[in-house]
Write a structure and sequence with these properties.
With 620 residues, this protein is an all-alpha fold. The chain contains 22 helices and 2 strands.
C-alpha cells in the first residue's frame, strides 16, 4: 500500500515536472526573438531540401526513368528556392556550387580541372539523350555535403535582422532580373513554381516580425505577397505577363518591404562613404537612376570626387596628343556625335586605311560593368585606358611620354594641381590621368529612357508593342538570360559584381544560307581554355537602335539581322561546328510580329539626353 502510494506520488511529480518543462519550453520558444525564429525557419527549409536530395539520390541510384527523375527534380529545386535567399546573401562565394550557371566561371582564378556543378548542371544532365546516372548521383552527393556545411554554418552564424531583410531584397532582384526569364531553370522552365515558393517563404519570414507598431505594414505586405502567388497559380513560362507582374506585384512588395524595415527600425547597411557593393537597396525599383553605383566599378572605389575631374577627363578624352603621333584620341573612335561609338564595322587604327578586328562599343552606360573589352581583358575603366595607351594600333605609346606632354602644358599643370592638391608636385600621374578619364566616362550613364520612366511610374502608359517586346525579351526570345535588367549588359544580378561572356557562334556577316564562323577566338586569346573559344562579352541593348553595326565584328547591319541570328539558334543552330556555344541552338520560332515587338522594346531603351553638350575640342 505504501509502495503504491509512493509510486503515485512519483508519477504525479514526474507529470508535474513534465508539464512545467513543457510550459517553460513553450515560453522560451515564444520568447525567441525574430532573428532566431528566422534562423530556425531557414534551417527547417534546408532540412526539407536535404530530405529531397536523399529521395532524389535514391531514385537516381535505382535508375528511375527520366520522367520520374525530372518531376522529382522540380520538387528539389522548389525546396532549394525556399532558402536560396539567405544562402546567396550570406555565402555568395559558394552559391554557384548550388545554383551556378552550367558554364566555367573564373572569378577566383584559373583552374582547368574545375567543372561546373550544382542544380543547373544536374538539370542539363537529366535532359541529355543518355542519362549518366553515376554523374547525377555524384552531383547530388556534392549538394548534400554542401547543404550540410551551410546548415552547420547558419546554425551558429551571428545574425541580424538586417541580414534577413537585405537577403529578401536581393532575392526579389533575382526574381525580377533572372527568375522571370527562367535563367536558372532553362530546360524545365519551372520558374513560376519557384518564384511562388520564394514569395511564400518571405511571407512566413515577415510574419515573424509581427508587433503592434508594424501590424498594418505587415498586413499590407503579406496581402501583396498572397495576391502575387494567387496570380501565379494559373501561369506558366509561356503565358506569364512579366511586365504586369513586376508593376502590379513585385514593385509594391519591394516598396512595402522598405517601409516595413523603416517602421521596425531595422538599420540598413547602406552608407554614403563606403561603396562596398554595387547595389543601392534604398532604391524602390531596379530602374531607379541610383540603383547601381558606378563608382563601385572603379579601380579605386573610394576616390574623392571633384568637379574638376570631369573637366580634366573631358579635356584628356579629346586630346590627340595622348597618342604617339598625335593622330588619335579616345574620341576618335568614341564619337559623341555617333553616341560614343563610330558607326563602323570595326575600329580604325593609327594607320590611314587600317582597321582593327573588333567593333567599337558605345561608352554610354559603360560605367555599369565589371569588365571591359569584348574579351573581358580589363576589369575597370582605368585599366582599360592602360590597354589603349600601349596598343600598337591605337595610342602606341607609354605613360612616360604622355606625362612629359602633359607636364609641358601650363593649362594642364594648373588643372591637375587644382584637382589633386593632396599630391602636390605629383599631381600629374598615371593615377590622376586614368582617374579623370574614367570619371568623365562615368558621367555618360543614361538611364532615363521612356521604358525607365514607365518602370519608375513617371509615365503611366507605354505602347502595347513595347510591353509585348519586354515580355518576349524576358520570355520566349530568351534575351534576358544574357542581357540582364536593368543594364541589359552581362553584369550579373542580383549583386551586379561580375560581367559574363557568351559563345554565340557569331558569323562573319549575317548569312543564313552560307554562314561562316568568325575566326576571332575572343576570350580564348587571353586565357587558352577550350570553353572560352569564341566567347565575347555581352553588350547592352540600351541605345542599340542608334549604335549599328552589331556584334564584336560589326558583321550585322541591323537589329533585324541580329534577332534573326538568335532566332536560328546562333552559329550552331545554323549548322556550324561550335561545341562551346552557350547560346541554345534550338530555334526560337519568333513570328514577324514578335520581331517587330522586340525592336520596339529595344527602341524604348534609348536615352541620349545631354549628348549635345559634348564637343570635340580640348579648349572647351
Amino acid at each position: 500500500m505504501i509502495r503504491l502510494r509512493n509510486n503515485k506520488i512519483s508519477f504525479l511529480a514526474i507529470l508535474l515536472l513534465g508539464i512545467l518543462l513543457s510550459i517553460l519550453s513553450t515560453a522560451f520558444k515564444e520568447n525567441k526573438n525574430a532573428t532566431e525564429q528566422a534562423r530556425l525557419l531557414c534551417l527547417e527549409h534546408i532540412r526539407c531540401f536535404q530530405a529531397e536530395l536523399d529521395t532524389f539520390q535514391q531514385q537516381a541510384s535505382n535508375k528511375q526513368d527520366n520522367r520520374i527523375l525530372s518531376e522529382r527534380f522540380k520538387r528539389l529545386r522548389v525546396e532549394f528556392k525556399e532558402f536560396e535567399f539567405i544562402l546567396e546573401y550570406l555565402n555568395s562565394k559558394n552559391h554557384p556550387f548550388f545554383n551556378g550557371v552550367n558554364a566555367v566561371e573564373l572569378e577566383d582564378g584559373y583552374n582547368p580541372n574545375v567543372r561546373p556543378e550544382g542544380l543547373q548542371v544536374m538539370e542539363s544532365e537529366l535532359y541529355k539523350d543518355t542519362i549518366d546516372y553515376n554523374r547525377i548521383v555524384f552531383l547530388t552527393k556534392q549538394l548534400k555535403y554542401r547543404s550540410l556545411a551551410f546548415y552547420l554554418f547558419l546554425k551558429e552564424a551571428p545574425l541580424r535582422d538586417t541580414y534577413f531583410f537585405e537577403a529578401v531584397r536581393f532575392h526579389l532582384i533575382r526574381i525580377e532580373a533572372l527568375s522571370l526569364a527562367s535563367f536558372d531553370t532553362p530546360t524545365q522552365r519551372n520558374n513560376i513554381a519557384e518564384i511562388a515558393a520564394s514569395l511564400k517563404v518571405f511571407a512566413e519570414l515577415i510574419q515573424l516580425y509581427s508587433n503592434s507598431v508594424a501590424e498594418e505594414d505587415i498586413s499590407k505586405l503579406e496581402s501583396g505577397i498572397q495576391q502575387s502567388t494567387i496570380y501565379l497559380k494559373n501561369k506558366n513560362f509561356q503565358n506569364l505577363d512579366r511586365l504586369y507582374f513586376i508593376k502590379r506585384f513585385l514593385q509594391p512588395i519591394v516598396h512595402n518591404l522598405i517601409l516595413l524595415q523603416k517602421k521596425l527600425a531595422i538599420p540598413s547597411l547602406e552608407t554614403s562613404d563606403k561603396l562596398f557593393r554595387a547595389v543601392n537597396l534604398n532604391s524602390n525599383t531596379i530602374y531607379d537612376t541610383s540603383f547601381l553605383q558606378p563608382k563601385f566599378y572603379a579601380q579605386d572605389k573610394y576616390y574623392k570626387e571633384n568637379p574638376l575631374y570631369t573637366a580634366l577627363g573631358k579635356r584628356l578624352f579629346f586630346d590627340n596628343r595622348l597618342s604617339s603621333d598625335g593622330s588619335m584620341s579616345c574620341a576618335t573612335c568614341h564619337q559623341p556625335s555617333n553616341y560614343f561609338t563610330d558607326r563602323l564595322p570595326t575600329a580604325i587604327t593609327n594607320k590611314a586605311g587600317g582597321f582593327q578586328l573588333r567593333n567599337t562599343p558605345t561608352l554610354l552606360n559603360a560605367a555599369l560593368q565589371a569588365a571591359y573589352f569584348y574579351d573581358l581583358s580589363a576589369n575597370t575603366l582605368e585599366a582599360q585606358m592602360n590597354h589603349v595607351v600601349s596598343n600598337t594600333h591605337e595610342f602606341n605609346t607609354n605613360f612616360e611620354s604622355i606625362l612629359k606632354k602633359i607636364k609641358s602644358d601650363s593649362i594642364y599643370i594648373q588643372l591637375f594641381s587644382a584637382a589633386f592638391p593632396e599630391f602636390k608636385q605629383e599631381a600629374v600621374s598615371i593615377y590622376s590621368i586614368n582617374t579623370c578619364i574614367a570619371h568623365f566616362e562615368r558621367q555618360l550613364v543614361r538611364l532615363n529612357s521612356p521604358f525607365d520612366q514607365y518602370m519608375r511610374g513617371e509615365t503611366l502608359s507605354i505602347d502595347a508593342s513595347v510591353k509585348r517586346g519586354f515580355n518576349l525579351f524576358m520570355g520566349k526570345a530568351q534575351c534576358g538570360t544574357c542581357h540582364f535588367a536593368p543594364t541589359f549588359f552581362s553584369t550579373l544580378p542580383p549583386f551586379y559584381g561580375i560581367s559574363e561572356a557568351e559563345v554565340l557562334g557569331t558569323t562573319k556577316r549575317f548569312d543564313t544560307i552560307h554562314p561562316e564562323l568568325d575566326e576571332d577566338l575572343g576570350r580564348y586569346t587571353i586565357i587558352e581554355y577550350e570553353p572560352f573559344k569564341y566567347a565575347f562579352k555581352t553588350s547592352t541593348v540600351r541605345n542599340a537602335a542608334l549604335t549599328a553595326p552589331y556584334m564584336h565584328n560589326g558583321g550585322f547591319k541591323t537589329l533585324e539581322e541580329v534577332i534573326a541570328f538568335y532566332d536560328h539558334g546562333g552559329g550552331a543552330g545554323l549548322g556550324l561546328n561550335v561545341p562551346t556555344q552557350t547560346l541554345s541552338s534550338v530555334r526560337l520560332h519568333l513570328t514577324s510580329q514578335d520581331k517587330k515587338d522586340l525592336i520596339a522594346f529595344i527602341k524604348s531603351l534609348t536615352d541620349t539626353s545631354g549628348l549635345q553638350n559634348y564637343k570635340i575640342a580640348i579648349s572647351d
